[in-house]
Amino acid sequence: MPLHPDRSLALAGASNFRDLGGYQGSGGRTVRWRKLFRSDHLAALTPEDARTLGALGVGRAFDFRGTTERAAVPYDVAGVAQYSLPIEPTVVQRMKELAEAGEQITPAHAVALMQQTYRAFVHDNAGRFATLFEHLLESDAPLVFHCTAGKDRTGFAAALILMALGVPRDVVMRDYLLTNDFYRMPVLADPRAPKEVLNVLWRVQEDFLNAALDAVDADYGGMPIYLERELRVGEAERRRLEALYLVS
């Protein structure tokens, strides 16, 4: 394997499939390549894409899509066990409520709703992320975690993993923002919102992830306490994660 593989695997059916390897974590050690992948949904993978996952040894997929999302766009990749960790999408419902109340939806509304969504990840969805960490701690067998676009639920999960491994917040943010370089927004036949609003909803901004990370700091006193109290990842678990996913 090359020392610095491509971060984006450029799959035909998943534009946001990326490797979390290569970042410097605790003790100057590096996150291992080809172990931890994040992605948009996997339902459009081509046969060649599926062969690529097989060659990578990816045997586990953790799906953060809500129940209806998952049922509407299922997938089955040979050799990949699926685990549903549903986090229901709320932004569309909140926008609908605003529209029904006579509010004109603006980019500012969309930003505020996205920030609320990220704070909810911290306070309302910790159990799903805790389950992901349970699996991470079981073995270092290659895995992928994803939602629909691989940007919000997946982005926060990636931030948690990298920060648990000691990757600095500014580096975590740079990884998070790579979605804007790679993700191909869907072509909507009947868009229900103005283009400038859709550009907020289908992209990521520092303000989104910062809303979650600032909530962690304000409400828990920092990521280590949040990890231990809400995700059951204390010092011993973090040492095991480092042993599994960091290399000198």
TrEMBL record:
Protein's recorded name: Protein tyrosine phosphatase
Stored PROSITE patterns: TYR_PHOSPHATASE_1, TYR_PHOSPHATASE_2
Lineage: Bacteria, Pseudomonadati, Pseudomonadota, Betaproteobacteria, Burkholderiales
Domain called Tyrosine specific protein phosphatases: residue spans: 127-167
GO molecular function: phosphoprotein phosphatase activity
Stretches that traverse the bilayer: none
Superkingdom to which the source organism belongs: Bacteria
The organism of origin for this protein: Ottowia oryzae
InterPro entries noted in UniProt: Prot-tyrosine_phosphatase-like, Tyr/Ser_Pase_IphP-type, Tyr_Pase_AS, Tyr_Pase_dom
